[in-house]
Amino acid sequence: MVGRDWLLAAVVVALLATATAVGQIVQRQPQLGLNAAALTTFNRRVRVWWIFYALLLVAFFSPALTVAIFGLMSFEALREFITLTPTRRADHRALFWTLIFFTPMQYIFVAYNYYELYSIFIPVYAFLFIPARVALAGDYKRFLERVAKIQSGLLICVYCLSFAPALLYLNIPNATAGAKARLLFFFVTMALLSEAFQFIWSQLYGRHVIAPAINAARTWEGLVGGSASTALAGMVLYWATPFEQLWQAAFMAMVVAIMGFAGAMTMSAIKRDRGVSDYGTLVEGHGGVLDRIDAICFAAPVFYHITRHILGVN
Q1: What's the pTM?
Q2: Backbone phi, psi, residue 206, to 5°
């Protein structure tokens, strides 16, 4: 790690320490009238962020190991997604191939930087294989629902998330391995900061809830204020990115915030439909893996492809 890498790591630690302190202090001030459940959820997220960033430090030393870590997260997130709803015996073979073949192969293609393969492997080959394999099992009851569930889980938990470590292999002109690792750090930091900013804006100034039946804590004020604040944070961390102009870092940070919001709302809608509060309990008291990376899953492919365009990557 060079000086700029250490500086970025120090900034991230400072941000996490600030978020931790603010969350704990505010939770001890009931007279403020803030949503106690939302505060508890926020503090839990911050504690998990510490673990997440500790794992991300590997990106500065071993891109391949970083890909493996994201692959394990994808596997667990997909398992949580699939087990959220009942499956039929006829689905088990398709699920086996989804978890044991398509998931690891996606990350193998990422590790070898085969963009031509990992960009289409799941949405083309896996999506055609899954309905065919389920049909061969001979069970037609709720066929479309069962197939769509498997495909959706594979798309969100594996395909989308795999574009986060793929940032380490972008052929950015004149960019070092450290610069690519900082780009991944920038992306994840913006995704997590956007959650914090949207939470703060919603708690302090939120008046108009976007979809009460889906998530009563998400407001228009939180979305707009949080996205704008994330854009400003992106400008502050502009120096850590390969973006050549200040507005590019701000724009990409805002894109992450908006897509992260879309991901959080979508995954909340699925949980409400299934009548659960969390996707899993891998970390006791903190929900499942998917509960903590929902925003990253939705933002990763969009951030990746717009970055390719802005930086002129072939």
Answers
A1: 0.88
A2: -65, 125
Q: Which domain holds residue 189?
A: 3-310
8 Å CB contact between 244 and 174 = no
pLDDT digits (tens, 9 = 90+) for 194-228: 988 998 898 888 899 999 999 888 999 999 999 99
Q: Summarize pLDDT for 227-282 with one digit per residue, the tens.
A: 999 999 999 999 989 998 999 999 999 999 999 999 999 998 988 888 776 655 55
Rounded Cα–Cα distance for residues 167 and 303 (Å): 9
Q: 120 in helix, strand or coil? A: coil
Instruction: Say if CB 162 and CB 118 are below 8 A apart.
Output: yes
Contact between residue 265 and residue 210 where contact means Cβ atoms under 8 Å apart: yes
Distance CA 39, CA 17 (A): 16
Using the CB atoms, write b or e for 206-241: b if 16+ within 10 Å.
beebbeeebbbbbbebbbebbbbbbbebbbebbebb
Domain count along the chain = 1
